[in-house]
């Protein structure tokens, strides 16, 4: 099993997690435990994304966990810029996920409505056929 170093950082209102060996693999949670759980879920997804894009999967340099306060890192201007970029990318990805979910719900509702319309049309046709048969029986 491949293991990567995970850095956990405590922010003012949440915890962040990132994998230095996998640039862009980040997570944020309300607690340290939640951030750790989310980054553990994110690593295989990130690796699969690299593989499907035909990119090389970096070999892990270290494994384990390291905790530090985010405020210490935000003093570094390079880190702050990368952090802000990652936060924007997360927000955009979240928006895309919610849009995809909304589209899926709309498509599902359309399929249900289409099925109901088909069912109603079939019931109307059956009622007409029954009426026509009864009219034919009455005329005999």
Features:
64% helix, 3 helices, alpha+beta, four-stranded mixed β-sheet, 140 residues, Double Stranded RNA Binding Domain
Describe the structure.
By secondary structure, the protein is α+β, with helices and mostly antiparallel strands. It has a domain at 1-75: Double Stranded RNA Binding Domain. It has helices at 32-52, 70-74, 77-139; strands spanning 5-10, 15-18, 26-29, 64-69. Strand 1 and strand 2 form a beta hairpin. The termini are far apart. The mean pLDDT is 80.
Remind me, CATH topology of the domain at 1-75? Double Stranded RNA Binding Domain
How many beta-strand elements?
A: 4
Helical run tally: 3
Provide the structure class: alpha+beta
Given as residue ranges, the uncertain stretches (5+ residues, pLDDT < 50) are none
How many angstroms does the end-to-end distance come to? 82 Å
Read across the widest sheet, the strand sequence of neighbours is: 3-2-1-4
CA-based gyration radius: 28 Å
Proportion in helices: 55-70%
Under CATH at level 1, the class of the domain at 1-75 stands as: Alpha Beta
The CATH architecture category of the domain at 1-75 equals 2-Layer Sandwich
Largest beta sheet, briefly? 4 strands, mixed
Which helices and strands appear, and what pairs or packs with what?
Layout: E1 5-10, E2 15-18, E3 26-29, H1 32-52, E4 64-69, H2 70-74, H3 77-139
Parallel strand pairs: 1-4
Antiparallel strand pairs: 1-2, 2-3
